[in-house]
Amino acid sequence: MHGNETGAGSGDAEETRRLRHEPDPDTYKLPGRTRPDQPEPVETPTTATQPLPPPGPYPVIAGRYQLRRQLGRGGMGVVWEAMDTRLGRPVAVKGVLLRGGIDPSTQAELVERARREAQAIARIGHQNVIAVHDIIEGAAEMVEAEDGTGAEGEVWIVMELLDPRSLADILREEDRLPVHRAARIALQVLRGLRAVHAAGVLHRDVKPHNILFRRGGRALLMDFGIATFEGAAQVTRSHSVIGTPRYLAPELGHFSPGPERRASQASDLWSLGVTLYEMVEGRPPFGGLDALEIQQAALNSPTPPMRYAGPLAPLIEGLLRKLPRHRISAQEAEDGLRRIAREEPPAIPGPPKEPPPELPPPVGSRRRWAPAAAIALVLALLAGGGWLLWGPGGGGGLSHTSPTIQGAETRGLLRIGVKSGQPGMSELVDGEWRGFDIEFAKLIATDLGFDPDTEVQFVPVSSVNREKLLGQRQLDLVVATYSITPERQAEGVTFAGPYFITGQTMLMRQGMYEDVSGPADFPQGTRVCTGDNSTSVGALEQDWPGRFVVDTRSDYDTCVNLLLDRTYDAVITDDLILAGFQAQHPDELEMLPRSFTTERYGVGLQSDEGALRDTVCGVIRDVIRDGRWQQLYQNELQDLLGGESRDSPSLQDLERCEDG
């Protein structure tokens, strides 16, 4: 969380880290990885995993924050994993190091910087910006832990504790990102950056190391150690330039022609443009052997042609215009990113309002780069135009081809039907929706360009009213253990899927039946409960006619309660649903050892939504290919199913997904 003040020769360390693909030492995070299928990132000494803390005693800040273990350490500060003993929650605590050799004026500057960092974050309060909880001035109660570890610092910032990798870690592992994934990350970062600017704050150090991810994948900005307020000078008393050279806007570098280098919102947008370029191309646009060469390249060299940016190329060019007044605005950037994240044709940023003055060529070079730059721009425009002509949905984009998305964009809300009371799949707990279907629906919403936390409304549905609500356009999507059947398709439901394949089984009171392994083993007249409009009714009547007395209820929670009350002998539905109820009553209920039918869950859409169906089918394939499906299953369902491993639908299962 420490800012970088870099002078003429201080870019060497940054460049060396980049060439070696090492993490930024100023990034703090909990050690470890977020997905078990990904390799452990290489740690430097500043972020190396510390041994687990001894039982205590621990250094304590303000009689409240127990410092448990160091997470990272740099030249200006140390970050601790701590426990807020008053609220009983883990937090991160950053202590600013005020060493004895530092003169009083420098100490005062460090204290002011820490205070400004905390105040800057606190006044923002946005989901794409790290949260600060407290700032404390004064030494810790210097109680050393049993291993001799003490706490250094006299200024402390208490923040939320994060446990993801940074964007820099992701780029180090994956080299570059697909266009639409990069657009979604950049869109979230830009939203946070716009909130920063709305609070009158300038970040001044937007870069991959300062972009982290919460659980669920939301990107957020961190490290406000060098943040300032708009219009403040960009140099320190020692005339060092503030910022990371590789991401520093040209008007802020040593070669800026202005008498004063003042940060602006456009300067932060330049840094975002460099970051976005790096995401899609796998390298930053401007390089050099040291900070001075990098700054000179940013000022004088054209943006290198992009091979992989596709529809993002014109937008990146717009962010990387040399003069701040010629860059596209934050609103233009957000509009473009939203279109690309939703797979719509991008609007190419317009030309500068006035022709930019000629910039002097780099020292020792000829002026032949101008035609090359023009050719690169034409190629970028042609690439964008080609995508416009042959992109998804025949070039119209979902905003033009999908009435569902048109309506959702107009109201600023995507309405998704889900079932309640299905542990592990979808349930409302303390006002929060949880479960596999919920998280899967959020992935779809994100890919469609909607923020799952602010632009999605989960609407409770039942097996009876799903088709009606879709037909009346009161729902945009249904993700609710919705089995794909010809009857439902005949009623006008368009399906994308399957995204989950499971089977039906039966739930009974423990010990009620012996040697029962399937429906054929139950005695004649067995009383069974299932949900209204459930496919289970047809299965029992077709395969075991007359054996069961079937009753239906509005929800399975009612069926299970009546099973426990001995009104019914069994409950029949999908094993995923019943496993959740069995987990709630492990000493009273048991399931058949195996399923006896196959159910294929699909995402329900309104009729005649072919373009939206095709897009959702693409999302399902991506989630299966990149391992997110297995991660969701492990997080939400595997424990409920007794640790049982299950496979996702295969790509062969999805061959007919677009048939609806």
UniProtKB/TrEMBL annotation:
Sequence segments annotated as region (Disordered):
1-59, 332-365, 641-660
Compositional bias (Pro residues):
346-363
Where would I find the Protein kinase domain in this sequence?
A: 65-348
Q: What is its EC number?
A: 2.7.11.1
Example GO molecular function: ATP binding
SMART domains assigned to the protein according to its UniProt record, in alphabetical order: PBPb, S_TKc
Q: Where is the composition biased (Basic and acidic residues)?
A: 14-27, 335-345
Question: SUPFAM superfamilies recorded for this chain?
Answer: Periplasmic binding protein-like II, Protein kinase-like (PK-like)
At which positions is ATP bound? 94
Gene3D superfamilies reported in the protein's UniProt record: Periplasmic binding protein-like II, Phosphorylase Kinase, domain 1, Transferase(Phosphotransferase) domain 1
Top-rank taxon, per record: Bacteria
Under what name is this protein listed? non-specific serine/threonine protein kinase
